[in-house]
Specification:
The structure is a single chain. By secondary structure, the protein is an alpha/beta fold. It folds into 2 domains: about 210 residues, Rossmann fold; about 100 residues, Rossmann fold. The protein is about 35% helix and about 15% strand. The protein has a 7-stranded mixed sheet with strand order 1-2-10-7-8-9-11, sandwiched between helices. Helix 2 crosses helix 6, helix 6 packs across helix 7 and helix 8 crosses helix 9. The longest helix has 17 residues. It is globular. The N and C termini lie far apart (about 45 Å).
Length: about 325
């Protein structure tokens, strides 16, 4: 079956980061999910969820898809829904970037803006989910992808890890991925365990996220961490986790751009910083794969804006070729 643009999802390049490998005395590879047609790894679960719902008869001609998203999942769903001619309502909050809102509307999505946090929890995520439920009860034949608990989210990432394993003949010691809905973490970890790979899965979370039980705090980087533990999360999927700060994300992004000429998104910067923090636990010459989730153009007004960085952190961090200057992070080994 010819699925047009959706057939271009997946099989993203895996490249060796030569300069980073040499500096850290490791073999470091990056999986470039920004080269999915919608610009992020969220293309994979978005298409997988919609296609499986169509096969199961949960989505029919005339159905309305309603989802909460801080950015990339919304864009992935907008792309898939546009291809299949489905109406899509994306519930966002005031933290959504102008560029992501423009992308959603360009694909034909309807943007439903939540302006106040949930009165009980104080969270915008819960307020968005509340709004989704309101829309589901008022719109006939509506469908909620529920990226936070849908196994077709995590199921899509079995293929992600399969691509990594096949490209390196299973010779992967450490796999780093950022956490949010935990779909990527769960799917990749399940593939590792089901296929008996030796790979250790390292989850990279945000300081202020509660996924691994830390105290909740404000976070600046969209799509990294969560204020509510996703139902896709289960203990044991990560061999260990590293929590990094918003400033770590900025420094990691700029370091990746300076050393490897890769313009990547905020969670990719988190992974670069996490690798540097975790280096003391990794034997020399180990093979490490970093899942870089999206492209940096969506962060030009934040991570790559000196004005934004100074406004939030008070200074421009120095980014050097030979090392990463970051704040202390929290590392937990299970």
């Amino acid at each position: 079956m010819n699925e047009g643009i959706l057939s271009a999802i997946g099989n993203t390049p895996l490249i060796r980061l030569g300069k980073l490998s040499e500096k850290l005395n490791l073999e470091v590879f990056a999986k470039l999910e920004a080269l999915n047609p919608g610009g992020s790894m969220k293309d994979r679960p978005a298409a997988n969820i919609i296609k499986n719902a169509m096969r199961a008869g949960r989505i029919k001609p005339g159905s309305v898809v309603v989802e909460s998203s801080s950015g990339n999942m919304g864009v992935g769903l907008a792309q898939t829904c546009a291809y299949y001619g489905l109406r899509f309502i994306c519930v966002v909050d005031v933290k959504a970037t102008t560029q992501n809102l423009r992308l959603l509307r360009a694909y034909g999505a309807e943007v439903d803006l939540v302006t106040e946090p949930d009165p009980v929890t104080g969270d915008f995520l819960q307020a968005r989910i509340n709004r989704v439920n309101e829309l589901l009860h008022t719109i006939e034949d509506s469908f909620w992808p529920d990226q936070y608990s849908n196994r077709n989210n995590s199921g899509a990432h079995h293929q992600t890890m399969r691509e990594v394993a096949e490209a390196l003949a299973g010779d992967v010691d450490y796999f780093f991925c950022a956490t949010s809905t935990c779909g990527t973490l769960r799917g990749c970890s399940e593939f590792v365990k089901e296929n008996g790979l030796r790979t250790q899965v390292i989850a990279v979370d945000a300081i202020g996220s509660i996924i691994f039980g830390g105290p909740k705090a404000e976070r600046l980087i969209p799509g990294h961490g969560a204020s509510v533990r996703p139902r896709l999360f289960e203990e044991g999927f990560a061999d260990r986790f590293v929590q990094v700060s918003d400033l770590d994300c900025v420094i990691g992004c700029r370091h990746l751009l300076k050393t490897e000429s890769i313009l990547a998104g905020g969670s990719s910067g988190a992974i670069i910083s996490a690798l540097h923090h975790d280096r003391v636990n990794i034997p020399d010459n180990s093979t490490c794969v970093l899942l870089l989730a999206d492209r940096g153009e969506r962060y030009l007004d934040t991570v790559y804006s000196d004005e934004w960085v100074v406004g939030h952190f008070g200074y421009i961090p120095e980014v050097r070729d030979n090392r990463l200057e970051t704040e202390p992070c929290q590392l937990v080994i299970f």
